[in-house]
Amino acid sequence: MKFERFVAGRYLRSRKSNKILSFISGISILGILLGVATLIVVVSVMSGFSDNLKNRILGANAHIVVNRVDVSPIKNWQGIGKIIEDVDGVTGVSPFILNQVLLTSENNVSGVVVRGVVPERELKVTSIKKFMTDGYFNDISKKAENGNPQIAVGKELAANLGVLPGDEVVMVSPFGKKGPFGITPKMKRFEVSGIFDTGMYEYNNSLAYIDISDAQEFFGTGDIASGFSISTGNFDKAPAIAAQIQKELDFPFWSRDWISMNKNLFSALKLEKYAMFIILTLIIIVASFNVISMITVTVKDKKRDIAIMRAMGAPEKMISRIFMKQGMIIGITGTVFGNILGFVICVVLERFKLISLPEDVYFMDRIPVKMELSTFVVVTVCALLITYIAGLFPAKQSAKLDPIEALRRD
């Protein structure tokens, strides 16, 4: 084995009389290097996008949401909440009231989704606390100094309305009281207690939080809830826990986990990731053609050496292994340096904001990168396998060379 490796390495270092082999070898290594590095970087970026989006969604939303199929209010919500809390794997349950309203300020008007919650419970099922950029989320359960209830709004919504913590907004509901001139919209003043930034434009621009008691009073619903937000110990187990909750509550309740609620989005990201992997693997496949060319040229150039080794009793398999090792040396060298280059590029992209992204489109301001050991392992295996397959045919052809004919012509 050492002899075969020695000869393969010797052939890669061509003599001055034939530098074409060194050139082809260099191009082969460079091609595999760039293919491996590109594949690692792209897959890591795609994983980063998916992971970042998952964290954003789970940060502003619960792992599981339970409501009625007919979207009617839940009257005995305390009892239903207790049943959900007793399900194995559930770590938090927060009732909520959801409705659409208009928020008006001195500067602008905006349509929003207002969410009435119990602040202490909501903090157990979502990460809204860490998203607060100004003020405190718990303050929505307190009254302002002037006696008005308080509200927490998203960053973009606050910018559109032109308000800061301490400013007043008016909440308007189209479902008001009937009068002689038709329905009179219901209005109530709220004081902005805080501003949050979930990192997702849709939520920052159209979501507001108030205390559930203020929501019940404003909408005149009485002591009811629209549904429940539920957190689990392991968000990957949310589908199984959601199924167990559905079994406990039965119809007309509907239990949905975060995966099913965002199935289309994550399915598209997963499909795109696999498609990019397959497409970029073609770079390595194209680079492997250089390996075929290099081995073919080497065999043609070293006919006399092959004939002498065959005449001295070297078996066909040994000759074949020499050129297979030559191809594998190129493949291993290109793959190793490709892994290093890919790692360096990923680190640079992760630490430095080289490319800025519009937050309202991508929900993030920079390219996210998530390096996983599995990515490096899969890319490495694919690159080495492709290189191995590429070297099979020319290596086998080298072993079929007739030594007598080669020496006669030489």
TrEMBL record:
Where is it localised? Cell membrane
- Segments forming domain MacB-like periplasmic core: 25-247
User: What membrane topology does the UniProt entry give?
Assistant: Multi-pass membrane protein
Q: Which domain of life is it from?
A: Bacteria
Query: Pfam families under this entry?
Result: FtsX, MacB_PCD
Question: Which keywords, in A-to-Z order, does the entry hold?
Answer: Cell membrane, Lipoprotein, Membrane, Transmembrane, Transmembrane helix, Transport
The GO biological-process annotations, alphabetized, read as: lipoprotein localization to outer membrane; lipoprotein transport
The reply on keyword Membrane is yes
Segments spanning the bilayer are 20-46, 274-299, 327-353, 373-393
Per the record, its GO cellular-component terms are: plasma membrane protein complex
Q: Which family does it belong to?
A: Belongs to the ABC-4 integral membrane protein family. LolC/E subfamily.
Protein name per the record: Lipoprotein releasing system, transmembrane protein, LolC/E family
Its taxonomic path starts at: Bacteria, Pseudomonadati, Deferribacterota, Deferribacteres, Deferribacterales
